[in-house]
Design goal:
With about 450 residues, the chain is mainly alpha-helical. Among the domains are: about 80 residues, no CATH class; about 40 residues; about 70 residues; about 80 residues, no CATH class. The protein contains 16 helices and 3 strands. A hairpin with a 2-residue loop joins strand 1 and strand 2. Helix 1 crosses helix 3 and helix 9 crosses helix 10.
Length: about 450
């Protein structure tokens, strides 16, 4: 009985101590010191022995079986564990790890939210607010101040260690100090240099004015070349293009006269072939009378070769040839060749059939077309995935409207109904149409006269 009472007293004192320890945060400073003193004076081994004795007295059967089991396990080398128990044990361990990781994740999430709040207060999540902008301006001003201070220090050191020359002959405003050389000789040399400089400047001004007048006169006879850039052409005004070199009536008459008398009917050229022949003969490139543009810099570059006063300046004619020769040599290097158009074939599908279409690439579009073909070639899978490649790279499907537009375009090209390169190129078609219309009108008038005569004869 004494053991039971001692165990009860030990348990009560332990529970009281635990309750005091749980309420430890709510105590004042003196109460905390008192509780800590009680914990220091507590006999922990005696409490543990009393707790064990109380458990043995209250549950003697369970404690006896537990002691016998421990004895058997220690003597027999342990109890065997089956597969189900081992799996249950591993499941419990995994659940414990999950619970532990969740707690760690919750702690990490709380820390992340705190960090995001601090970052938002300083710079903002998606944009820089007022606080962020002020901090950024402060840092920028600090960097500028540091850079200015460093630059000022370097400038002061450089100026302090600089050694300035006593004279600068290339600067006209520099005041020369008196030297031991004779003054008469230096003044004569300076006078000769100034006279030569004024002479070169005057010659350059006169030559530049004269060449500008010649440039303006020659610019009136310049022929404007069409722009071959497709983007620039698309941005121009929507006005039908006019042929640069329109065929003259004499050229058209000469071409018509060459086929005017045909021995056989099949040898005569059609209107479309005659127009194409006339345009091919007339629209040949003509040389331009323009020369390279002249600037003062090019004139001064040529005159700089005669910098000494003793060398005589060349004549104006020679200087013009020299300046224009240098400019034309530079422009010849920049001359561009007229781009040639390229015809490519593209396969499309319409109504279950594969059609081959010919498309003419505009100047400047060849490079983009080649790059597109290279990307398509690089995107092909090949090998065992060739079937998938064929499935993905199907030809373009045309609808009825697109197919009708292509057919009409092909018909216009074959029949020569429209020639957009020359808005005045259909003069021969119009004359032929008028002649056919006049013949039909005469035929209709004759038919009406015959019908009226038959009616009168029948009466």
């Amino acid at each position: 009985m004494e053991g039971v009472e001692m165990a009860k007293r030990g348990e009560e004192s332990g529970e009281l101590a635990m309750q005091q320890w749980e309420d430890f945060d709510n105590y004042s400073k003196e109460e905390k010191l008192e509780v800590l003193q009680k914990w220091a004076n507590m006999d922990v081994p005696a409490i543990a022995v009393a707790t064990v004795k109380g458990a043995v007295v209250r549950h003697p059967v369970l404690v006896s079986f537990w002691a016998v089991g421990l004895l058997i396990a220690s003597l027999a080398g342990g109890l065997p564990v089956n597969t189900s128990q081992e799996e249950a044990y591993h499941i419990l361990l995994q659940q414990a790890e999950v619970i532990d990781s969740r707690e760690l994740g919750q702690q990490a999430e709380v820390e992340l939210q705190k960090a995001e709040a601090v970052y938002h207060a300083s710079s903002g999540l998606f944009s820089c607010d007022d606080t962020c902008q002020k901090a950024f301006d402060k840092e920028s001003n600090r960097g500028y101040q540091d850079a200015k201070a460093t630059t000022a220090n370097w400038a002061m050191v450089t100026l302090g260690s600089a050694v300035f020359p006593d004279s600068d002959p290339e600067d006209e405003d520099f005041i020369l100090e008196e030297t031991e050389e004779p003054a008469a000789r230096s003044q004569a040399a300076r006078g000769a240099d100034k006279a030569a400089r004024r002479k070169r400047q005057k010659a350059a001004e006169e030559l530049w004015e004269e060449m500008q007048k010649e440039e303006l006169q020659s610019a009136k006879s310049w022929v404007k070349r069409p722009c071959f850039d497709p983007l620039f052409r698309s941005l121009q005004q929507r006005v039908p293009p006019v042929q640069r070199f329109a065929p003259k009536k004499v050229d058209v008459a000469a071409s018509v006269a060459s086929y005017g008398q045909c021995a056989e009917e099949g040898q005569c050229k059609s209107a479309k072939e005659m127009k194409q022949r006339v345009r091919a003969e007339v629209a040949a490139p003509r040389p331009s009378a323009s020369a390279g543009s002249v600037s003062k810099a090019s004139i001064w570059a040529q005159l700089a070769k005669y910098s000494f006063a003793t060398e005589p300046l060349p004549s104006a004619k020679e200087m013009k040839q020299m300046v224009r020769g240098s400019n034309t040599s530079g422009t010849k290097k920049l001359a561009l060749k007229l781009p040639s158009s390229t015809v490519v074939q593209e396969s499309v599908r319409f109504a279950g059939e594969t059609l081959l279409l010919q498309r003419r690439l505009q100047p400047g579009e060849q490079q983009r077309y080649l790059q597109t073909q290279k990307r398509k070639q690089a995107a092909r899978l090949g090998g065992s995935l060739r079937a998938l490649d064929q499935l993905l790279s199907k030809d373009k499907e045309l609808n009825t409207m697109e197919k009708s537009g292509l057919d009409w375009k092909q018909h216009k090209e074959e029949a020569g109904l429209e020639l957009p390169k020359d808005e005045r190129g259909s003069a021969l078609e119009r004359s032929a149409f008028l002649s056919r219309a006049a013949a039909r009108a005469q035929h209709a008038a004759r038919a009406q006269l015959r019908a009226a005569a038959r009616k009168r004869a029948a009466k």
